[in-house]
Automatic annotation (TrEMBL):
<dbReference type="InterPro" id="IPR042112">
    <property type="entry name" value="P_AcTrfase_dom2"/>
</dbReference>
<comment type="pathway">
    <text>Metabolic intermediate biosynthesis; acetyl-CoA biosynthesis; acetyl-CoA from acetate: step 2/2.</text>
</comment>
<protein>
    <recommendedName>
        <fullName>Phosphate acetyltransferase</fullName>
        <ecNumber>2.3.1.8</ecNumber>
    </recommendedName>
</protein>
<dbReference type="InterPro" id="IPR028979">
    <property type="entry name" value="Ser_kin/Pase_Hpr-like_N_sf"/>
</dbReference>
<dbReference type="InterPro" id="IPR042113">
    <property type="entry name" value="P_AcTrfase_dom1"/>
</dbReference>
<comment type="function">
    <text>Involved in acetate metabolism.</text>
</comment>
<dbReference type="InterPro" id="IPR016475">
    <property type="entry name" value="P-Actrans_bac"/>
</dbReference>
<feature type="domain" description="Phosphate acetyl/butaryl transferase">
    <location>
        <begin position="372"/>
        <end position="691"/>
    </location>
</feature>
<keyword id="KW-0808">Transferase</keyword>
<comment type="similarity">
    <text>In the N-terminal section; belongs to the CobB/CobQ family.</text>
</comment>
<dbReference type="InterPro" id="IPR002505">
    <property type="entry name" value="PTA_PTB"/>
</dbReference>
<dbReference type="GO" id="GO:0006085">
    <property type="term" value="P:acetyl-CoA biosynthetic process"/>
</dbReference>
<comment type="similarity">
    <text>In the C-terminal section; belongs to the phosphate acetyltransferase and butyryltransferase family.</text>
</comment>
<dbReference type="Pfam" id="PF01515">
    <property type="entry name" value="PTA_PTB"/>
</dbReference>
<feature type="domain" description="DRTGG">
    <location>
        <begin position="215"/>
        <end position="325"/>
    </location>
</feature>
<dbReference type="InterPro" id="IPR050500">
    <property type="entry name" value="Phos_Acetyltrans/Butyryltrans"/>
</dbReference>
<dbReference type="Pfam" id="PF13500">
    <property type="entry name" value="AAA_26"/>
</dbReference>
Amino acid sequence: MTKNIFIASAEPYAGKSVIALGLVNMLLAKTKKVGFFKPIISQQENGVKDKHIEAVLNYFSLPIPYEDTYAFTRQEVLQQTESENWGEMINTIISKFKKLEDAYDFTVIEGSDFLGEGVAFEFESNAAIAKNLGAPVLTIINGENKSTAQIVSSALNVLRNFESREVQVLGIVANRVKQEQVDDVRELLHMQLPKEIILTIIPLEKGLQSPTMKEIADVLEAKVLFGENLLSSQVDNFVTGAMMLPNFLNHIKENLLIVTPGDRGDIIIGALQANLSASYPKVAGIVLTAGTEPDEPVVRLIEGLQTIIPIIAVKKGTFETTTMIGGIHSRITADNTNKISLAIDTFEKYVDMKALDDRIITFQPEGITPHMFQYQLVKWAKSQKKHIVLPEGNDDRILKAAARLVSQNIVDLTILGDQAEVAASLKRLGLDLDLNAVKVINPATSDYYEQYVETLFELRKNKNVNQEMARDLMTDVSYFGTMMVYKGDADGMVSGAVHTTQHTIRPALQFIKTKPGVSIVSSVFFMCLPERVSVFGDCAVNPNPTAQQLAEIAISSAESSARFGIEPRIAMLSYSSGTSGEGEDVEKVREATAIVKQKRPDLKVEGPIQYDAAVDPIVGSQKMANSEVAGKASVLIFPDLNTGNNTYKAVQRETGALAIGPMLQGLNKPINDLSRGCTVDDIFNTVIITAIQCQESGQSS
C-alpha cells in the first residue's frame, strides 16, 4: 500500500498526461485531498505556467498553489548537474514533496517530459527521484510507429532499468498501440512480465493525438480571420489545396484542414460549401499561406454565411506551413475540456482500475465530496445503460450535451427533430456526434406515430380527447417523448430547455401518473457545495404544499437521497427552530414533521428548524443540542416554492455550488424538467440522474 505514485515515461510524447488525468480523477472519487507534483518542468517563459500542471489544477479545482507543484525547471537541473549539486537538488525535491504529502491523502507525481537537450540524463533523474520519494512507478511506453517486437522490447527494457536501480514498478502502460497489434502485444507481455505487474494496453486514439485549430494557429503564429469561436475544432487530416476545385473536393475527409494560398478564392468557397453540404464530411478549418488574404468579394461572401469555419492566415509558404503542421504534437491544455474528458474516458476504458485501487488506496473517505458524487453518478449510469429521449433536438445545448453523453458511452439516446436540420446543426456547431450512434425521430413522420395516436386516444377519450385532438397532440414533442417512455420505447425523458415546466410535466401527469401511495409530484436539486452534497426539496414544482404534501415531499426526497448514496438526515425548514416559534407557517412544518415520523419512524428528521441550525454544527448544537440532524442535515425541505427556489439560486450563485436537477420524484417513470436557462452541463447531469432513476424503475417494474 502506498500514498503516492510516480508516472514515468522512457521517451518523449508517450502520453503521461492521459494517465495523470485519469489517476487524479479516480482518486478524487475516493477522497477530496489529492496532491499533484511534477518535480522537473520544462523551461517556461516569464509568467507562463506549465501547461499540464495548469490543466490538472484547473480542471479538478485542486487547491494547490502553482509554485508548490514543482521544484526545478529543466534548465536549472542541467546546470546543476554540471556543477555536481545533484544531491542538494534531490533534497530540495524531497522537502517540497514532503510538504505536499503531509497535506494530502494521496499525491500523484509526474516525471519529466524528455524534450530538448539532456534526454540521456532524463531517465536517470526520474529513477533517482522516484527512488528517493519512495514512490512506485507506473511507466508509459509509446507504441506509435513501432513494431510489436519493438513495443515488447521497450517495455521489458524499461522494467529492467527501473528494477536495476531498485525502483518498484507497479505497472506498465503501452500507449498509442495500433488496434491490430493490441492482442499480440498483450499476449507477449503477459507471458514475459512478472504476475504482479499491472499491464495496460491503450490503442491509438486519434482524438487525443489530433491538434485543435487553436494549437495550429499558435504554432504557426497565425492571424485569425474568421471563426474564432470554433478554434477548438479538432484537425484529423490536412491537405494542400493546390489542385482544381472538382479534384480538390475528392480529397475532403472528416475534420480536414485545408492549406492553400489566400488568392485561391475557388478553394476557399468550395471548402465552405462542402462544409455546409450534408454530402461531405466536416471541414475543420483553412490556413491561408504566403501572406495573402482573400479578395474583398470573397470576404463579403464569407461574412454573410451563417456558419463560418476557422480561417487563419500565415506569412510562411505552403511547404513550410505543411511541414510545421505535420510536426505538431497536440498537448492537453486547461482550455480544452473536451480533450481532458476524452483522456479520462480513455483511462477508464483501458486501465484495470480495480487492480490499481487494490494496490494504492489506503485511506477511508469521510463524507461525500461533489467530485465523488459526480464520478459515482457517471459510474452508476454506465453500469446499466438506459435509453433517454431528448425532445428538443432544435436546441444547440441539447445537441452539445448529447455529443458528450454519446462520446462517453453513458446512455443510448433518441433525439426528436428533423434529421436534416439536426445534421446541419451538428455541422454548424462543429460537433462530432455520429448520427448512426443516436436515433433522430421526427414525430409526424415516425413509424410510431399512428400507434401512439391510438394509445393516447384510448387513454384520454374519457377526458374528451377525440381522434383528431390525439393526432394533433402527438405531433407535440413533449407528448411524443412522454409516450415513448409510457410505451417502453425509451426508459426516461429530459425536456424543458425550450419548453415550460408545465409543458414538460403535463403529459406525464396525464398518462405516466404517480407511483402507488404518492399523491404529489415534487422535485429535488443535488447541491454540490465545496465540502458536501446536499439534497434540496422542493424548489421547482409545488408553490404552497399542505402539511400532508410537505411530509410526502420529505419522504420522497429522503428516498432519492439514499438512492444517490447520500445518507438522509432530514431538516424540515422554517423561520424558527424547535418549539420557539408560533404562527400558521411554523405549525404547518411542525405537523408535516410529525407525519413523517409517524409514516417513516426509520428516518432521521428534525423540524421545524432554521437553515443555519440545520447545516452549521456550532449553531445546531447551540439551538438543538440533542438532535441527530441539527448541524449535519443532508436533506433540506423548504416550506414553499418561494423560499426553496430563491434559496437554491442564492446558494448556487454565492458559493459557486453546482446544482444538479431539478429531478422529479413521485412519477411511475422518470421524466425530468430542465430550466430554460440551463447550461450544457445541466443537461448532461440531468440525463445522467434520469438514467439512474430508470435503473430503479426498471428493477421495480
